[in-house]
Amino acid sequence: MRRLLALLGLLALPFGALAQPTPLPTPLAETALHIAETAEVSRAPDEVVAVLRAEARAGSAAAAQQAVNRAMTAAVERANATPGVRVTTGGYWTNRVEEGRAWVSAQQVTLRAGDGAALLELVGALQTQGLATSSLNWTLTRETSRAAREEASRLALEALRRRAEAVAQQLGLVLVGLREVRIDVPDHGPRPVPMMAAARSASGSPPPVAVSEDILVGATVQAVAVLRPR
Fold this sequence. Notes:
The chain is built from five helices and eight strands, in the order H-H-E-E-H-E-E-H-E-H-E-E-E. By secondary structure, the chain is α+β, with helices and mostly antiparallel strands. The protein folds into two domains: 31-43 and 144-187 and 219-229; 47-139, Alpha-Beta Plaits. The strands form two sheets. It has a five-stranded antiparallel beta sheet. It has a three-stranded antiparallel beta sheet with strand order 1-8-6. Strand 3 and strand 4 (102-113) form a beta hairpin. The two termini are 58 Å apart.
């Protein structure tokens, strides 16, 4: 009888009381480390860019524009005859000046070349034809700039990973991965160059002199480094 009562008592207990689940291990806590690193690479400029302007003043808009058109036609023909020079035009405008008593018209022409000496000689010749130089810059070609940005990004990412591993070691943790990685590569832009005197060119007018220097291309990498206990 006692055995029967004990058996009935066990059957009356809830099922959960008979089979308690084994508690799961507590997951290891993660540490999120917000970190950033910057790297730079140096590249010699391989392209010079000159922007010149043809400008004319006349008593009517038509006369001013005709003078600019003649000057730009001659400038573009001269530039196209120079090997290795790429020519684009733009920035055409016409306005009244002197309280409406005259008109001024102007247009820009942009010249690009990898041969700095040839381009500067051309700029000097166009200055002799009456064009004014608005800017003269050394810069990087698209291909060189892209390669430099990629290398700077790689170096910054490698530096970020090394720093994250060093911090993890100091905290007694290990680096298990990176999250929310962001790469920021600012545009280096053209580099202005000084204008200095030079020997006279074949046209009799001294061409401008552009002294170049290396251009720094940088990249900044930001990420969240995930750290865990060893």
